[in-house]
Amino acid sequence: MPHLSDKFGRSIHDLRISITDRCNYRCVYCRTGTNGAAFAELPFADYLRMARILVALGITKIRLTGGEPLLRKGIVEFVRDLSSLRTTTGDAPEIALTTNGHLLAEIARPLKDAGLDRVTVSMDAVDPDRFARITRVPNGFDNVLAGVRAARRVGLDPVKVNCVLLRGFNEDQIIPFGMFAREEGVVVRFIEFMPLEEDRVWTPGIVVTLDEIVTRMSEYKPLVEISHHQSETARRYVFEDGVGEIGIIAPVSHPFCGHCSRIRITSDGKIRTCLFSLWDHDLYELMRRGTSDEKLADFIVSVIEKKEERHHIGEPGFVPASRTMVHIGG
Ligand code: SAM
Q: 191 CB under 6 A from ligand 1?
């Protein structure tokens, strides 16, 4: 049975495909303020071929991301094609989407019908004015809230809401997000801010850490930690009364590289073995030159073997990744 693993023995079964690096939001901690693309987009048929080869090698879960993936016309058909792939155990791969939610309300039902299993919506404030200041887009909050509700209504379950906290900017949103999780029936996950932004403003001091989030949230209501799967990035908590789940993804204060199961394909068809990789592996260029599926599979296996052991955030001599988050696919 094919099985992808790296030289540290980690099994690789999660694939993220960025289908565009364009975005309709310009979040202050991510973008410089422009929303243009820096890299090419490929036809969906090319991503599909890559995904087919990777699924045959052992990938079981595919997440579509960007940039903003819902900006790409044809995403529903792409999800349908991906869901017709079969993993090495004969099942459909699990298909997930990460989106800012701005365009989600209309398309949630067609995506679900096409085979989308789950959605994660990024939302960094539950206060509409703060939301506009972070995204630099007026009146986005109502669209995103409508998207979250539509996703729940059509059964994209569970709906996860990801929030990046920045000290002095939106850390006061911790408890409001706890309330939001309980009221809206979504899993709210806080992500520690990583040095992957275009403006290079990251400092350790800006990061609101897992411990701080748990302490602050517990002032609202006590949290109980629940078990999480080893390759799951989030530590999971429920409120003591069982209503509302919170996750915390803590790559800075509690790195989980030892259990990483991911690789990424960028919108222009490069493989990245780590968010913090210093170089890409050009799968698309090989395809363009007419390489066979077998040879592409050999290339993928050899690239994955060389996956980095861990990131070096916060260490002396840290070298920034060769691309920023929006151009990799978060
Ligand atoms: N446009 C989609 C969205 O908003 O979810 C997908 C792409 S976005 C880059 C994916 C996720 O990465 C978002 O949840 C965003 O908040 C997060 N993100 C962006 N820059 C980050 C950083 N430097 N550290 C941690 N998370 C970051």
A: yes
The string of pLDDT tens digits covering residues 30-83 is 988 666 789 999 999 999 999 999 999 999 999 999 999 999 999 999 999 999
| 248 Cα to the center of ligand 1, angstroms | 14
Q: pLDDT at position 2, please?
A: 61
**Burial environment of residue 92 by CB neighbours within 10 A (0 to 12, 13 to 18, 19 or more):** middle
Are 19 and 75 in contact, with CB atoms under 8 Å apart?
Answer: yes
pLDDT tens per residue across span 208-259: 999 999 999 999 999 999 998 877 789 999 999 999 999 999 999 999 999 9
194 lines ligand 1 (CB under 6 A): yes
pTM: 0.97
Q: What's the CA-to-centroid distance between 55 and ligand 1, angstroms?
A: 25
Q: What is d(CA 101, CA 224) in angstroms, rounded to the nearest whole number?
A: 29
Q: What are phi and psi of 262, to 5 degrees?
A: -115, 150
Interhelix angle for 140-153 vs 128-135, to 10°?
Answer: 100
**321 CB within 6 A, ligand 1:** no
Residue 194 Cα: closest atom of ligand 1: 24
Q: Is 173 in the pocket of ligand 1 (CB under 6 A)?
A: no
Query: By alpha-carbon position, which residue is closest to atom 11 of ligand 1?
Result: 330
The burial class, CB within 10 Å (0-12 / 13-18 / 19+), for 38 is: middle
